[in-house]
Design brief:
- The protein is α/β, with parallel strands linked by helices.
- It contains 12 helices and 7 strands.
- A 7-stranded mixed sheet has the order 3-2-1-4-5-7-6, with helices on both faces.
- Helix 10 links the parallel strand 4 and strand 5.
- Helix 2 runs antiparallel to helix 3 and helix 9 runs parallel beside helix 10.
- It binds S-adenosylmethionine.
- S-adenosylmethionine (SAM) binds next to helix 7 and strand 2.
- S-adenosylmethionine binds next to helix 7 and strand 2.
Length: 288
């Protein structure tokens, strides 16, 4: 597949235009309503389309309203991440790329992760992809005092920023960032003999498959452990442009997981999608 495939390019432009919207149907409708073709459309049809867009947005907003509100510190991290001068920081050579504010997860993901940590009674959490620490702290807030979130991050620039953010919360002390490429950190964690109850994967998409293979092969996941892989719907790419494998490593990752008989998985379609993965247990499905 050529890098400049027009369909992929057009798709990417549309994603850029509506950065915080993950559902391509909503993006497409918003783009249509702004397009010049709309001037020839009857007002009642335009009104109907606007109502449809409104319904989609209300659905998302309602889900956020009903979900438990995230903590004050999480709200501060969100706000300050949005206002941070990422472009200037990148131009000054302090980050490997422009950190996109869209990378920070939203309140539903935050409370979902918190929920999973709580109901699984997890104590050892691994995160791959810390960014400004929003999801690491979301999980830490659900841990008991002796629980730990080990979080991997490649960019040293985030060291001071996250350490200051974590110092604002009594749960921050449960978070232990490991800086460097996640692949290397996974080797270190293997040597340390770590075993995790919950793993949240949210870093470079091309790395997902390798991370999950290493986690499973090196015994980093507890027998009843759960892996949650973010961006499993990747802005709609897996089902809209499925052949574009170079552009979208998530296609391969999702298929790889779906084709492994030793795993069970469910794709949760909120925000940009989370693929929840666990091992198939030997005793599972026995009828006595
Ligand atoms: C999507 S952001 C994580 C967002 C965070 N989980 C949240 O929701 O607030 C991905 C992060 O992974 C980091 N990253 C990318 N490639 C990496 C790698 N190979 N090893 C470790 N971290 C990496 C990026 O620097 C970025 O901060």
């Amino acid at each position: 597949m050529a890098v400049y495939d027009p369909a992929v390019r057009e798709f990417s432009i549309n994603v850029e235009r509506n950065m915080l919207v993950y559902d391509p149907a909503i993006r497409e409708l918003a783009a249509l309503l702004e397009s010049p073709e709309m001037k020839d459309v009857k007002p009642e049809i335009r009104e109907k389309l606007e109502n449809i867009l409104d319904m989609c947005n209300k659905r998302n907003n309602y889900a956020e309203e009903i979900t438990t509100e995230h903590s004050d510190v999480l709200a501060q991290i969100t706000q300050e991440t949005m206002n941070h001068p990422w472009e200037e920081v990148f131009k000054a050579g302090k980050t490997p790329w422009i950190m996109a504010t869209r990378m920070i997860s939203g309140p539903i993901t935050s409370q979902f992760l918190n929920f999973i940590v709580s109901i699984t009674k997890a104590k050892q959490i691994l995160e791959i992809g810390m960014f400004t620490g929003y999801t690491a702290l979301s999980m830490a807030e659900a841990l008991p005092a002796d629980g730990v979130v080990i979080t991997c991050e490649i960019s040293d620039y985030l060291k001071d920023l996250t350490s200051e953010f974590f110092s604002r919360s009594p749960h921050g002390k449960k978070i232990k960032p490991y800086f460097g490429p996640a692949r290397e950190t996974l080797e270190t964690l293997t040597k340390e003999g770590r075993v995790f109850d919950v793993v949240f994967v949210d870093a470079d998409k091309a790395g997902y498959r390798g991370y999950v293979e290493t986690i499973l092969d090196n015994g980093l996941l507890a027998p009843n452990g759960i892996i949650l892989a973010d961006n499993a719907l990747s802005d709609g790419r897996p089902y809209l442009i499925p052949k574009s494998r170079e552009q979208n490593p998530i296609n391969d990752f999702n298929e790889y997981i779906a084709n492994r008989p030793d795993l069970r998985q469910v794709l949760l379609p909120f925000r940009d999608g989370i693929l929840a993965i666990r091992r198939t247990l030997e005793a599972e499905g026995q009828a006595g």
